[in-house]
Each structure stands twice: as structure tokens, then as C-alpha cells.
Amino acid sequence: MIRASGLISDSFLKPGVEIPQRLRHTFKIMLETRLQSILLVTCLIVFSAGCGSSQEAGETPDESVMVEQEPAVPGEPHAVMETDRGTIVIRLLPDLAPMAAENFIQLSETGFYTRTVFHRILPSKMIQGGDPKSKDNDPYNDGQGNSGKFIRAEFSSHPFSVGAVAMARQPGNPDSSSSQFFIVLERSPEWDGDYTIFGEVIEGLEVAEEISRTPLSKDERLSGRPVVATRIKQIVIEHREVVEETEEEEESQTESSVTRP
């Protein structure tokens, strides 16, 4: 037999036994309290259901908390690279290599490339830079640094023509590009399809050519290392309108640039 905390004795549960007035009053209070609790819970449930349906009934959300999207910047991204020898302007190609272009933009805008050196040179063929370790005074660790982030290869059929800008990478690992890049100074078909091209020089190619003519170290451990460091002062990202040239204009410029005897 279950007892309610000893408040009700066995005698009260027998038929014909009259419950005292005092105990009746206690039962009445307990019953009223229980009914009030049930009524309160019912009201809360109804109220909650009504609040939840108010948004569905057509109320508009608070416009003050809505996130507004920034308008797209007109024009195409260009990297204006200021060096000790002059300025090089690179037209970035996000349609060709979106990850590499965005990676270069992010590093440039955070000042990552400031004070880095063009640490590797192939005379009149290529200059390479973008290594954070080139900022220190130890030339033997140049070429070993990265940004801590690596991006996948975005190889394309775009040829390695004069002015092409591509991501450097570790030999045998296509997805090891990080921060280092190189500028091509002569047609190099042996690199076609093996490196990610993400830009092209449109101004200041003569600056890159001058850097490539810097005398190199005779130390065998510093192969391709220039004896005079050329540093990047800063890279500013600008968006410019690009006017595509016609084939006739390109041919005219090519003919006018040919050196004749």
C-alpha cells in the first residue's frame, strides 16, 4: 500500500469513515493549487504557439539586422608593385587562376610582400620573389619560406610568354604553391602546363629585366642569388578598366617594337 508521506492513515481509506473537516480543507487547497498550475501551463503553451506563428503570418524581419552585400568593385584587379628599381604593374587573371589570384591579393593587402627580395634570378629569363625568409640577413634560407597556406595547382593552356607571372612550387608537388612567384622575361615553352599562371605584366617589364641583369653570387650554395638585393617596397591592389586590343593593334605594336638593322 502506497502512503503519501504518512499524512493519510489506513483508517481514512476504509469505507464509511468520515474525513475530518480540517483534512477536507487541506485537500481542497491542494486541488485548487493543482488546477491553477494546469491552467498556467496551458496559457503559456497557447501564448508560445501564438508568438511562433506571428512571423509566418506575414511580419517582415527587422531590417536593421539584415546584412547588406557590398557592391562589386568595377574593373579588373591589378597589382602595383613598387620595388627599389621601379614599379611593375601586374594584371591579375582571376578567371584563369581564381585561387592563385585571390591568394596573391590577400597577401599583398596584408603587407606580406613588403621588404621581400627577388632572391633567385635566371639572367634575362626569370626573376623570382615572394619568400618571407628573404627579409632576414641569412641568404642561405632564401627560397625555403612560405605563407603557411598552400593552394592547389591551376594549370592551364596559357603559354609562358614574356611578362607571364606564375606561382613557384616545390619540385614534384603541384599543390605546394604558397607565396613565392616568378616573372617570365622570355618565351619559355618548357614551363607550359607545369606552373600556375595568374597574371601578366602590363607595365614596368623593363624594371624586371633590369633586376634580371643583377650580378649573381659565385657561392655554389647560392645558385642564382643576386649579390645586390632588390626589395619590394609595397604592393597595392587597384581595380582598373581593361580595354581589349584588336588583332590589328597588337600586330602594329609588335612591328613597331622590332629592332631593325
Write the layout of secondary structure elements.
Layout: H1 21-54, E1 76-83, E2 86-92, H2 98-109, E3 120-122, E4 126-129, E5 164-167, E6 181-184, E7 197-203, H3 205-212, E8 232-240, H4 247-257
Antiparallel strand pairs: 1-2, 1-8, 2-7, 3-4, 4-6, 5-6, 5-7
> What is the CATH architecture descriptor of the domain at 76-240?
Beta Barrel
Shape: elongated
Give average pLDDT, whole number: 81
**Could you tell me the strand content as a percent range?**
15-25%
Helix content: 10-25%
Low-confidence spans: pLDDT under 50, at least 5 residues? 1-15, 51-67, 256-261
Tell me the total number of β-strands: 8
Strand arrangement across the biggest beta sheet:
3-4-6-5-7-2-1-8
Tell me the Rg in angstroms.
Answer: 38 Å
The fourth-level CATH homologous superfamily of the domain at 76-240 is Cyclophilin-like
Note the run of SSEs as H and E. HEEHEEEEEHEH
**Can you identify the CATH class of the domain at 76-240?**
Mainly Beta
